[in-house]
């Protein structure tokens, strides 16, 4: 019964409710524990696992809310910086962006061994558009978010091209684009972490799935159906035969 002491009173109430026990108002923690463990259908292993899932869900929700709160705080700080540092140029009213902020507080550096470049650049663009940074100023921020070996590759390009975000993006996509099978692995194995919202998790899954199907030139429902069926067969094929399996 010691496991019941790992949660809060509200967790015990939720557990009792899930077990379809009658919870009366004003019950104390010790009484809730007694109610749960003395139930006629009490199964310690099942109840223990259920209680753990209730606690995990509560903590995940709390972590997600905290992540959203931190994001909103950072967003407010950035917007305040943008407001202070935007200036109008003479009579043409051209806007010059001078605000500087730490992009890594919102978007971590790109890791070519773990990250998908297409998804990363999409997230990068969304963040800079969010704080109204013009595309002409994106390159310095991009360089600051990439590892040094990739930056060296960029500076070796034609000087004009290295200042053009669109051309740099095309180069990165061509160089670091993942294979169809790697996209498939990311889609199948991707798990939501406590640090990201469900909206972001859905966006990431969608990006991996689209990368997988795009690399294989899937354009019709029939082709998609054949791909899903082939993938299911491949995943259930004995290891000794997988190397002979023909990919879709």
UniProtKB/TrEMBL annotation:
Q: Which SUPFAM superfamilies match?
A: Retrovirus capsid dimerization domain-like (SSF47353)
**Which top-level group of life is the source organism from?**
Eukaryota
Name used for this protein in its record: Uncharacterized protein
């Amino acid at each position: 019964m010691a496991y019941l002491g790992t949660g809060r009173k509200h967790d015990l109430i939720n557990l009792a409710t899930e077990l379809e026990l009658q919870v009366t108002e004003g019950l104390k923690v010790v009484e809730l524990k007694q109610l749960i463990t003395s139930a006629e259908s009490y199964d310690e292993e099942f109840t223990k696992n259920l209680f753990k899932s209730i606690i995990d869900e509560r903590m995940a929700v709390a972590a997600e809310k905290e992540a959203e709160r931190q994001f909103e705080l950072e967003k407010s700080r950035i917007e305040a910086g943008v407001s202070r540092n935007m200036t109008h140029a003479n009579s043409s009213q051209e806007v010059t962006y001078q605000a500087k902020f730490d992009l890594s507080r919102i978007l971590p550096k790109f890791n070519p061994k773990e990250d998908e470049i297409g998804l990363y650049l999409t997230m990068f663009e969304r963040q800079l558009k969010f704080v109204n940074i013009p595309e002409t100023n994106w390159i310095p921020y991009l360089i600051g978010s990439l590892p040094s070996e990739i930056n060296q590759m960029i500076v070796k390009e034609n000087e004009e091209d290295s200042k053009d975000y669109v051309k740099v993006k095309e180069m990165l996509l061509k160089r670091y684009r993942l294979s169809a099978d790697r996209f498939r692995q990311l889609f199948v194995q991707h798990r939501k972490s406590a640090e990201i919202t469900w909206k972001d998790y859905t966006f990431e899954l969608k990006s991996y799935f689209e990368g997988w199907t795009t690399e294989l030139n899937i354009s019709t429902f029939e082709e998609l159906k054949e791909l899903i069926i082939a993938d299911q067969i491949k995943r259930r094929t004995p290891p000794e035969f997988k190397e002979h399996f023909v990919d879709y």
